[in-house]
Design goal:
This protein is about 50% helix and about 10% strand. Helix 1 packs across helix 8, helix 2 packs across helix 8 and helix 9 packs antiparallel against helix 12. A six-stranded mixed β-sheet has the order 1-2-3-4-6-5, sandwiched between helices. The protein is α/β, with parallel strands linked by helices.
């Protein structure tokens, strides 16, 4: 078991931290303020009161390595808000976002129910990578509108927010913010009044901020006191700190494993004993992505495939499927 260093401060963007500060008991006021900062930036109606639909549970969280656990909340007007932190760009990611939005939307009614009972679903995706390098700004709002008259929307029920949290898109170095406009040189002496800017500054930099910097941020950011209190509560718990440290290590190891797998794949045909090494690499990659879910079936398929094919392209395709598919069943179906 690994233990976190004494001076370790968890990153708020780590999935377990992010879930805790926004969906554990007593976090509602902070989550509401963050949602409204996004809604204000999107020029959409604010929420008045929310209820978290999937409260944080540490044991459930740690027991499910492979899944991305969103935060789901419903406001008093029956709008559903789905918030997620994504650290890596997956294959067909845009389709995945729309798929999960559609499931939340459709699951509001049962077979035979009136469509009038459907309510808006708002997705908020915080991406630690660029999805739209061709677009200026970091906050992109997507809806359904007329191609000929874009000022007219088909419905207000669909709203998807993509927040690209990269230095280039934010136009900043750490602790220096910018607004959702065309990229300009950032200056630490210039601050634009934007709640969303301040929320993102907090999420990206809270573990590095001085007390004075944090006090200034708290004074000007509505609702942040609640979320910062939850962050300090998290940091004060040795069990939670260990969970965050383990998750950060897991993500680093996962990225390293993917890079290693790519390198192994390139050199595969040149190395002696490549079959055994190839199998172990694929098993390791599977466990890093999906845990033990479906591992036995995957191992059986690989053993059979090893006897039938030595084609490097075939094995590269299996590796690609593990890296790009969201569900283990999809990988098994495609190999």
């Amino acid at each position: 078991m690994s233990f976190s260093p004494p001076n370790y401060e968890p990153m708020a963007t780590t999935d377990v931290v992010f879930r805790y500060i926004f969906s554990s008991a007593g976090s509602e006021d902070g989550l509401l303020a963050f949602i409204n900062a996004v809604q204000k930036s999107a020029n959409r109606p604010l929420a008045e009161k929310i209820e978290v639909q999937n409260p944080f549970n540490l044991q459930s969280f740690l027991g499910d390595k492979g899944s991305v656990l969103d935060i789901k909340a419903v406001d008093i007007n029956s709008r559903t808000f789905d918030i997620e932190m994504q650290t890596a760009l997956h294959n067909a990611f845009e389709s995945r976002i729309l798929y999960y939005w559609s499931r939340l939307y459709a699951d509001q009614i049962g077979s035979g129910d009136d469509y009038s009972f459907l309510n808006p679903v708002v997705s908020i995706v915080l991406a630690r990578f660029e999805m739209f390098p061709q677009l200026p700004g970091f906050h992109h709002v997507f809806s359904v509108m007329s191609e000929n008259y874009p000022e007219y929307r088909l419905t207000d029920d669909l709203q998807i927010n993509i927040l690209e949290l990269t230095e280039r898109k934010l136009g900043v170095k750490p602790n220096v913010k910018r607004t959702n406009t065309l990229p300009v040189p950032a200056s630490p002496l210039t601050r634009v009044e934007s709640p969303l800017d301040d929320w993102l500054d907090f999420l990206l930099n809270v573990n590095q901020k001085t007390e004075d910097e944090m006090e200034t941020l708290l004074k000007r950011t509505p609702g942040l006191h609640t979320t910062y209190r939850k962050y300090r509560e998290f940091s004060a718990s040795s069990e939670l700190r260990e969970a965050a440290f383990a998750r950060e290590k897991y993500e680093r190891d996962r990225r390293s494993e993917i890079l290693r797998a790519e390198n192994v794949g390139r050199e595969e045909g040149r190395e002696e004993g490549r079959e055994e090494g190839r199998e172990e690499m694929l098993y390791s990659l599977w466990e890093m992505k999906f845990g033990s879910n479906g591992l036995a079936n995957f191992q059986s398929k690989i053993k059979t495939a090893t006897q039938k094919s030595s084609d490097a392209a075939y094995w590269a395709e299996i590796q690609k499927q593990i890296l790009t598919q969201e569900l283990p069943e999809e990988v098994l179906r495609r190999i």
